[in-house]
Design brief:
This protein is 89% helix and 0% strand. The protein has 366 residues and is mostly helical. The two termini are 101 Å apart. Residues 196-234 form a coiled coil.
Length: 366
């Protein structure tokens, strides 16, 4: 039962193969098994590849099944259409397009499985890529917000510096009138005289200005800090909004690109394995000598070709014979006087009728 199924997969003529020995049947069952398991691997590989694209099992399995059946049909067609010739070079030339197609199919099948086999390593590469993209994204967004934030921080520093300078000036005036009262500077007279009162008045005026400046600058600083907070909130929102795009950077193309950054030898080895599996049926048919099935198939095909060629040749001969006979018959008829005289009489009668009809028409017009 299983052997019959694999024979069906090989594309061989089962009735013709059944008349051959066990060895020949086993050979084609092996070829059919290779075709079947290649299609099975194609189904698994394509289903996984489509799952990474659609992220849905319900979509991946039907499309993977269609792809597996397509590969099965192609392989079965390739194997079943290769015919054994008398020379290996001729056979290889016939099979070369099919071998090229098999190599392409092997690439298509092996790549998704490589993605699954090296999934952990690919995830590590993708994680590094995501981290780098996150940092780059933050830096790019920061270019939009940082200049404005720095400018506002500089405004705050300027306002605070203005308060500090005013405080320093007020402290200097305070020290001046205290030194005047103590007689250490100014008039060097101990006590609170007119000069002391004048300096004290200047200090009190400066202190009032300092208080007003503090209130005004504190209000402006609070306003600017609120603007800075709004900019920082906008920056954080922009980073948060763009982060899901980076987190979703694990599609099929991204994984293939990450696979290309891994060492090439393991991937190349897997590709060679699948290429060997895919080209195995073709290579087996090329390397094995002609078997009983090949001779019987060639006999059946050449018999049909010969029969068709014979029928075409017979039709051509029949046409040529009929042409010669017609030529001879009509040639002999052309030489008979009775036929000539009868046809001449009828032609003369027809000409008389035409002349009379022409005469009648002329008379009517006159």
């Amino acid at each position: 039962m299983i052997r019959q199924f694999f024979v069906l997969c090989s594309g061989a003529d089962r009735a013709l193969l059944h008349s051959c020995g066990e060895g020949e049947q086993n050979k084609y069952a092996g070829i059919g098994a290779t075709v079947f398991f290649t299609a099975l691997m194609a189904f698994i590989a394509s289903a996984y590849a489509l799952y990474t694209v659609f992220d849905s099992v319900y979509l991946a399995i039907p499309f993977g099944l269609v792809w597996g059946l397509l590969i099965f049909n192609l392989d079965r067609f390739i194997v079943s259409t290769i015919r054994k010739r008398d020379r290996f070079g001729k056979e290889l030339l016939q099979a070369s397009p099919r071998i090229l197609l098999a190599v392409i199919i092997a690439v298509v099948i092996s790549k998704p499985l490589e993605l699954k086999i090296f999934e952990k390593e690919i995830n590590q590469v993708l994680l590094e890529e995501k981290n780098r993209m996150t940092l780059d994204n933050q830096q790019q967004i920061a270019l939009q917000y940082t200049p404005a934030i720095e400018q506002k921080k500089a405004e705050i520093a300027g306002l605070r510096e203005e308060i500090r300078r005013k405080e320093a000036a007020t402290d200097t005036l305070y020290e001046t009138y205290i030194a005047e009262a103590e007689g250490r500077k100014g008039t060097l007279l101990l006590g609170k005289g007119p000069v002391y009162a004048e300096k004290r008045e200047k200090h009190d005026a400066s202190l009032a200005e300092l208080q007003a400046l503090r209130e005004e600058n504190t209000r402006r600083i609070s306003q600017i800090e609120a603007e800075i907070e709004a900019l920082e909130t906008g920056y954080a929102g922009a980073v948060e909004t763009s982060q899901p795009v980076i987190d979703g950077f694990d599609g099929l193309m991204a994984r293939i690109d990450a696979l290309g950054k891994l060492p090439w030898f393991p991937s190349f080895f897997i590709f060679l394995l699948f290429m060997a599996i895919e080209t195995a049926p073709i290579l087996v048919k090329l390397m094995t000598p002609k078997g009983p099935y090949d001779f019987k198939l060639e006999d059946e095909e050449t018999a049909v070709a010969s029969w068709v060629a014979q029928k075409v040749h017979q039709r051509e001969q029949l046409l040529e014979t009929d042409r010669l006979l017609n030529k001879k018959v009509y040639g002999e008829i052309a030489e008979e006087q009775a036929v000539y005289a009868h046809k001449k009489e009828k032609a003369e009668a027809l000409m008389r009728l035409q002349a009379d009809r022409f005469y009648d028409l002329q008379v009517k017009q006159l």
